[in-house]
Structure to design on (366 residues):
C-alpha cells in the first residue's frame, strides 16, 4: 500500500540547518538506491548534497551510468527528462521543484519546429538536405523530432563535434533553440556569418527569402538565454580598462560579440577547469550564471585568483534557482515513506526517438 505523500508545507518552515541534517540522514538511509545529480548553477545549499556535479553532458552521461533506483536531479526540467530517457525502466527520475525550467528551452516547441520543417520543405527536400540539431536545453518531444529525422542532440561541450557529424550527413543544419550557441560554434568552424541565417519562428517562412534559405549553411532558431544575453561587449571593455591583465571567459550562450572579445569560450565544466588550472594570482572576468561565478571566486581565493561576474547587473537563472533544501528534503523523505513525488516521465514513444538522437550524441568521442 502506498502511504499518503508528505506535504511540502511541512518542510518550508524548517531552518537551513534542520533541512541539511535531515537531508544527510535521508541520503544515508536511502544509500545506493539514491543518486543526486547537481548542475553547476545550483545554489550552494542544494549543490553541497550532489553526489555528482557537472555540466549538461557530464550529467547526462552520469544519468545513463547510474544504477540507482532514484535519480534526483537538481537542475531543470529538460535535464530530468534526459535522465528518464537514458535510465532503465525500473529507475525513476525526480525533479524536486517542477517549476525548475529553462526559459530558452521554452522558446522552441514541437508545433513551431514542425511548421518550420514543413515550410523549409517547400524550398528544399528537408529530410535529404537538413540535419536537425537540438541543444540539450529543449523538451523531450524536440529531441524525438531530431531522432525521427536522423538528427542529433548537442551540449555546449560537444556542439562543434555534433555539427561536424551533421555536415558529414547533410549539407545544412537547422539548429534550435539557441541561436548564439549555433552561431558561435559555426563561426569557430569557419562558416561565414552570412551563411548562418536566423529563423524567426513567429513569421511565415521564418522571415527569410527562399534564396536566403538555399544559401544558408546553418538555419538558427531565434532563441536565446536571457541570463547570458545580459552580458555586453562594453562590460568587458570597461573591466579591462581598470584591470588590463584580466582573462575573459564566457559560455557560448553569450552573444557573438561577447564571445569574440573573450579569451576562452566553453561550457560550465570548461570554465571551471580553465580557472582551476590557471596560474595563481590571476584575475578572471566570467560570462555565465552568478551562482557558479561566486562559487569559483570562493573556491580559488586562497590561490590569489579573483573571479568576477561580467555584468554590472545581477542575472540569475531564476527558474533553475528554484530548487532549495526544503524541496529536496520533501522528495527524499517521501522516498523513505515509499512515495515518489515529482517524477518526470517521458512518453514511451517519444522517449524511444529522443533516445536515438541522444545516443548519436553520446556515441561521439567527446
Ligand atoms: P552547460 O552544459 O555548459 O552546463 O550549460 C547548461 C546551461 O543551461 C547553460 O546555461
Ligand atoms: Fe536555460 Fe539560460 Fe538557465 Fe541555462 S542559464 S538553464 S539556458 S535559462
Amino acid at each position: 500500500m502506498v502511504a499518503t505523500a508528505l506535504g511540502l508545507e511541512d518542510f518550508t518552515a524548517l531552518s537551513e540547518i534542520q533541512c541539511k541534517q535531515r537531508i544527510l540522514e535521508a541520503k544515508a538511509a536511502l544509500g545506493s538506491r539514491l543518486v543526486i545529480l547537481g548542475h553547476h548553477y545550483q545554489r550552494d545549499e542544494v549543490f553541497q548534497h550532489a553526489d555528482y556535479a557537472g555540466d549538461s553532458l557530464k550529467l547526462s552521461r552520469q544519468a545513463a551510468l547510474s544504477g540507482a533506483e532514484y535519480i534526483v536531479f537538481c537542475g531543470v526540467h529538460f535535464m530530468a527528462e534526459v535522465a528518464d530517457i537514458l535510465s532503465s525502466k525500473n529507475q525513476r527520475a525526480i525533479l524536486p521543484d517542477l517549476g525548475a525550467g529553462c526559459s530558452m528551452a521554452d522558446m522552441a516547441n514541437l508545433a513551431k519546429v514542425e511548421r518550420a520543417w514543413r515550410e523549409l520543405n517547400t524550398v528544399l527536400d528537408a529530410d535529404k538536405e537538413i540535419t536537425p540539431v537540438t541543444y540539450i536545453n529543449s523538451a523531450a518531444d524536440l529531441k524525438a523530432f531530431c531522432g525521427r529525422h536522423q538528427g542529433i542532440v548537442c551540449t555546449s561541450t560537444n556542439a562543434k563535434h555534433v555539427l561536424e557529424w551533421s555536415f558529414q550527413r547533410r549539407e545544412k543544419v537547422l539548429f534550435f533553440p539557441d541561436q548564439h550557441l549555433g552561431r558561435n560554434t559555426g563561426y569557430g568552424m569557419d562558416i561565414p556569418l552570412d551563411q548562418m541565417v536566423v529563423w524567426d519562428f513567429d513569421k511565415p517562412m521564418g522571415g527569410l527569402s527562399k534564396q536566403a534559405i538555399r544559401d544558408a549553411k546553418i538555419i538558427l532558431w531565434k532563441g536565446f538565454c536571457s541570463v547570458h544575453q545580459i552580458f555586453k561587449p562594453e562590460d568587458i571593455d570597461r573591466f579591462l580598462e581598470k584591470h588590463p591583465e584580466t582573462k575573459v571567459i564566457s559560455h557560448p550562450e553569450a552573444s557573438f560579440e561577447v564571445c569574440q572579445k573573450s579569451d576562452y569560450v566553453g561550457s560550465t565544466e570548461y570554465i571551471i577547469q580553465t580557472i582551476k588550472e590557471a596560474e595563481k594570482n590571476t584575475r578572471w572576468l566570467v560570462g555565465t550564471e552568478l551562482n557558479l561565478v561566486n562559487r569559483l571566486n570562493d573556491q580559488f581565493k586562497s590561490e590569489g585568483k579573483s573571479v568576477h561576474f561580467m555584468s554590472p547587473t545581477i542575472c540569475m537563472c531564476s527558474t533553475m534557482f528554484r530548487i532549495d533544501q526544503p524541496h529536496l528534503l520533501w522528495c527524499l523523505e517521501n522516498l523513505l515513506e515509499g512515495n515518489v513525488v515529482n517524477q518526470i516521465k517521458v512518453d514511451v514513444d517519444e522517449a524511444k526517438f529522443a533516445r536515438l538522437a541522444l545516443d548519436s550524441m553520446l556515441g561521439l568521442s567527446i
User: Anything to note?
Assistant: The domain at 8-101+320-346 is CATH 3.40.50.10800 (Rossmann fold).
